[in-house]
Design a protein that fits this description.
Layout (H helix, E strand, L loop, with lengths): L15 E2 L7 E2 L15 H24 L3 H6 L2 E2 L7 E6 L11 E10 L5 E5 L13 E4 L7 H8 L6 E6 L17 H11 L2 H5 L3 H4 L2 E11 L2
Antiparallel strand pairs: 1-2, 3-4, 4-8, 5-6, 5-7, 5-9, 8-9
Amino acid sequence: MTKMVIIRWCAPPPALLLPHHPTARFSSPKPPSVVYAKSSSPASSSTTRRALSLSLIFSSFTCSYYSSSEAATSEFFELQGSGGVKALDLRTGSGEVPVDGDQVAVHYYGRLAAKQGWRFDSTYDHKDETGEPIPFVFTLGSGKVISGIEAAVRSMKVGSIRRVIIPPSQGYQNTSQEPIPPNFFDRQRLFTTIFNPTRLANGEGSTLGTLIFDIELVSLKHP
């Protein structure tokens, strides 16, 4: 007996309109292709599951997000006391919620609204000597990371995935704030766009530094 398999495919439109940012558009980034060598190591399997999970959630969210732009933008909410950071929870985890002083590990995709959603950095591009992706680790409340990311992580549970739209005031204020793209050309393109003196003088500062991050809180460690 022949079995028929039906595969549903959803292609996103070319651009996404950010809520409350009528002039800022970014193209939908291609979901990452994460490929790992087979391993019997529990740690390796866990990392693979996390990578595939984030990729699948990102793909399915992209598909459903575009089905109704008005409904999608209404799902974003402003994080309390964040200075205007807007969030959309893609998955809610079941772990602990971090507090200031905790060491947290996150995976993320970082995009720039001013460059049509150009992805300037991803932790899945940062590999160790075995080829495993390295999460970004920082101390919550240390002030070394851009405020928008700290605001997003502060109310997440371990295992959660959240998309945040970070306004310039809560994004990069200088070139030493983390996370910093390790690739020189990506770093140069990012900072020359955000801190472009001519465009800032023309009043474009409200959109130049708008960031979009998809963040997964992988783990936390108490001091």
